[in-house]
């Protein structure tokens, strides 16, 4: 029982950390609180639906490709012309992008929710240290953990990661020192797209369906996690997302069933409280770089 | 002196005249046009409420639809006939069972709807007063999320995801016009008041206004509560016009269309908000007809075309004219537009 809870809480934590990093990365590099992030996930989920007859591995790769394409396209068409606008304008713009992508999905391929039968191996359970753990929970944990480690490696050890962090720290200064702004921003969107794609794979496997509205929840997770962790560092954001995931799993386990429906109300009230009391986030230092 | 007063009064008079034109147009057209006109008048009430906060403080709010929802639910509780309420709310928890016996007139329902929304405004005001820029955007959105979650999950009181039905239709062209005019006057009066002017000063330059002794938080809170009241009244008007509604109305897509209105008109200006409300209401109707195929020879386009075009329009406006049609100027006031057009409002702490 304890081990099952731990695996599912850690899995949800890792998934939420993944989603949060995607939001926080774009916010750090170009001040964009991306409400269209959910629709990037939608694009990946659609790929999973479209290629559901193909081998699972192929569908996963296509999901990542779809997500990256949509992320880069949204940058080209909407956010590139708005470079340097204030964060609220960018947020409104991302609202518009989100609605536009949702409408496109509804117009063309997803007028209503479609089921994606989960792969049979995902619904099995295996014995682990004497507990019956579902493969899906294990996969969530392993996949998200691996991707998080990969992101940590890219951000910490590669030249691209150093440039991304420099751009997040001070974009103009980084450009003045020879960091190519356009390339860095494009690669930030590519990374966000990859993260969204992987996130969508896990998300669809858990939900078993795709619909035009499905992006809302993962997007909100990313935003709340990023605010909780403080948006000044990716590590803080990842930790914020992780805590949010573990907290959600714990709330679900502990909350009396009559109050579970109000889980989101609790979460968002906590979010407002954090914004008011510690605008720099629960986990970051004293520096506020949000507004 | 008198000419100065007259010049300053030009804006509310012009705006009321615009509302009047909308009402007359609704009167002249058929029932469909009338419906569009009434909804446009209700939108005017809502956006004047929204711009009371966002135009004066320079802070965009994504959460005002929560106030509208509260107003609508209040109106439903106050005006649904008592016998029907008995069956609709058979599971009301004991402390709230008095709601089943309540009955009031339409005007009282609108005012009380506004007051209930203002109470939520009062509760959230201490938090909102401290925030600005992006944090404020996220916090206001969180207010909407909490409200929506409670309304859709508190099934015994709000009927959850089932619709509210049986609200007597009371909002007409004339009552809509009356409330729109009243809302414009209230918003204008606040904007010209001492508190409104000080809040606008903080919008132009936060630190300079603080240094001159403006208590920014208090004025933000005042504007927030007043705008909550107006948006709550708009919600009550909406409920009394549409007669049945579902909680899903009061969520992101409605928020989005109001944002389109204020951004298109210019979110720093009351006139911009009113013009945006009228323009976008008209545009949405045209787009709806376009989607239904009235301009393409009867072949309906897939649902979502109208939303897509609205979103695309908003993006173009944000890129080309970030301050919208009016900038921070007002109708009938010369010379102020050029002054502020070029200067983007500086979010608080941007220089820090």
From TrEMBL, chain A:
Any one GO BP annotation for this protein: L-isoleucine import across plasma membrane
Keywords, alphabetical: Amino-acid transport, Cell inner membrane, Cell membrane, Membrane, Transmembrane, Transmembrane helix, Transport
Membrane topology, record value: Multi-pass membrane protein
A Gene Ontology term for the protein's cellular component: plasma membrane
Annotated TM spans: 6-27, 34-51, 57-78, 90-109, 129-155, 184-204, 210-229, 260-277
Single annotated GO MF: L-isoleucine transmembrane transporter activity
Subcellular location(s) per record: Cell membrane
Pfam families, A to Z: BPD_transp_2 (PF02653)
Family: Belongs to the binding-protein-dependent transport system permease family. LivHM subfamily.
Name of the protein described by the UniProt record: Branched-chain amino acid ABC transporter permease
Originating organism: Aeromicrobium phragmitis
TrEMBL record, chain B:
UniProt key word Cell membrane: yes
UniProt superkingdom: Bacteria
Localization per record: Cell membrane
Primary localization class, coarse: membrane
Pfam families: BPD_transp_2
Recorded GO CC terms: plasma membrane
Transmembrane parts of this sequence: 12-30, 36-53, 65-84, 104-124, 131-151, 171-190, 224-252, 258-283, 295-319
InterPro entries per the UniProt record, alphabetical: ABC_transp_permease (IPR001851), LivM-like (IPR043428)
UniProt topology in membrane: Multi-pass membrane protein
Record protein name field: Branched-chain amino acid ABC transporter permease
């Amino acid at each position: 029982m304890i081990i099952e809870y731990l695996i599912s809480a850690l899995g949800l934590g890792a998934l939420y950390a993944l989603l949060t990093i995607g939001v926080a990365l774009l916010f750090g590099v170009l001040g964009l609180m991306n409400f269209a992030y959910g629709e990037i996930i939608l694009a990946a989920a659609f790929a999973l639906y479209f290629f559901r007859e193909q081998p699972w591995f192929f569908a996963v790769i296509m999901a990542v490709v779809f997500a990256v394409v949509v992320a880069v396209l949204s940058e080209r068409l909407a956010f590139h012309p708005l470079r340097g606008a204030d964060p609220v304008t960018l947020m409104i713009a991302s609202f518009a992008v989100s609605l536009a992508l949702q409408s496109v999905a509804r117009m063309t391929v997803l007028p209503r929710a479609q089921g994606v039968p989960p792969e049979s191996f995902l619904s099995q359970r295996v014995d682990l240290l004497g507990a019956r753990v579902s493969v899906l929970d294990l996969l969530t944990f392993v996949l998200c953990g691996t991707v998080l480690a990969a992101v940590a490696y890219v951000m910490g050890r590669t030249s691209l990661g150093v440039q991304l962090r420099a751009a997040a720290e001070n974009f103009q200064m980084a450009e003045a020192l020879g960091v190519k702004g356009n390339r860095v921003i494009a690669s930030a969107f590519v990374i966000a797209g990859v993260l969204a794609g992987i996130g969508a794979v896990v998300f669809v496997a858990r939900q078993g369906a795709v619909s035009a509205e499905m992006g809302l929840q993962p997007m909100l997770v990313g935003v709340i996690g990023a605010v909780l962790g403080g948006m000044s560092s990716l590590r803080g954001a990842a930790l914020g997302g992780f805590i949010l995931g573990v907290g959600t799993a714990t709330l679900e386990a502990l909350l009396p069933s009559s109050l579970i429906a109000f889980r989101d109300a609790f979460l968002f009230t906590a979010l407002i409280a954090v914004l008011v009391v510690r605008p720099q986030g629960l986990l970051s230092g004293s520096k506020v770089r949000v507004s | 002196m008198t000419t100065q007063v007259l010049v300053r009064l030009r804006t509310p008079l012009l705006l009321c005249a615009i509302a009047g034109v909308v009402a007359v147009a609704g009167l002249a057209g058929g029932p469909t046009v009338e419906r569009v006109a009434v909804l446009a008048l209700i939108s005017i009430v809502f956006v004047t409420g929204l711009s009371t906060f966002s135009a004066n403080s320079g802070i965009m709010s994504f959460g005002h639809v929560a106030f509208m929802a509260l107003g609508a639910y209040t109106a439903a509780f106050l005006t649904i006939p008592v016998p029907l309420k008995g069956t609709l709310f058979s599971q009301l928890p004991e402390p709230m069972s008095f709601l089943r016996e309540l009955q009031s007139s339409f005007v009282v329902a609108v005012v009380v709807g506004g007051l209930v929304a203002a109470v939520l405004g009062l509760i959230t005001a201490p938090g909102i007063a401290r925030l600005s820029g992006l944090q404020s955007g996220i916090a206001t959105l969180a207010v909407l999320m909490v409200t929506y979650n409670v309304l859709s999950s508190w099934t015994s009181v709000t009927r959850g995801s089932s619709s509210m039905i049986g609200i007597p239709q009371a909002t007409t062209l004339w009552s809509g016009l009356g409330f729109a005019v009243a809302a414009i006057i209230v918003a204008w009066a606040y904007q010209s008041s001492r508190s409104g002017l000080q809040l606008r000063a903080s919008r132009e330059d936060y630190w300079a206004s603080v240094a001159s002794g403006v208590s920014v938080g208090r004025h933000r809170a005042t504007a927030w509560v007043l705008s909550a009241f107006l948006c709550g009244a708009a919600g009550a008007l909406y409920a009394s016009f549409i007669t049945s509604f579902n909680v899903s109305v009061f969520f992101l897509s409605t928020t989005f269309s109001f944002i389109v209105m204020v951004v298109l008109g210019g979110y720093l200006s009351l006139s911009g908000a009113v013009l945006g409300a009228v323009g976008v209401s008209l545009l949405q109707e045209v787009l709806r007809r376009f989607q239904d195929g009235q301009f393409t020879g009867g072949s309906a386009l897939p649902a979502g075309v109208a939303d897509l075009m609205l979103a695309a329009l908003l993006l173009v406006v944000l890129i080309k004219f970030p301050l919208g049609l009016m900038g921070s100027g007002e109708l009938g006031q010369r010379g102020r537009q050029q002054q502020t057009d070029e200067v983007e409002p500086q979010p608080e702490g941007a220089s820090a």
